Amino acid sequence: MADLRLNAAMGRKKKGSGAESEERSSEPNAFGALDALGDLPAGPEALVPISPARTSKRGQKNTRRGRVDIVRQTAHRGGKAVTIVKNFTGIGQAEKQDLAKLMRKACGVGGTVKDGCIEIQGDKREEVKRILLEAGFEPVFSGG
Q: What InterPro entries does the record tag this protein with (predicted)?
């Protein structure tokens, strides 16, 4: 037993030592008390991703949420392009934040919600259009 402790302190273990397996079996099982409880729930259900698209009262996806404008802007930004989505109707700040997060992740760039508009860094109009179509909006390219 002293050899085992000495070798363990030095970071070495003896192979084929039966004393070590005897020590493990004598320790109490930490989860043994859970077996006595019987039928425990299996765990949380599969997480459902939060979708920014709202559903109607009848449970169908709302595909007519209104027109939104997608604009590419470079003015006052040092020549860098920014994609701006504006003219949302009937949508709250929280849903704009969710949409912006989805756009940032899909485009792999930064962005923000400012003055009721979603700003995405870079010229990402096509990717933004796809996301807005999936959310039920009617995106329209406007401006230059």
A: SUI1, SUI1_arc_bac, SUI1_dom_sf
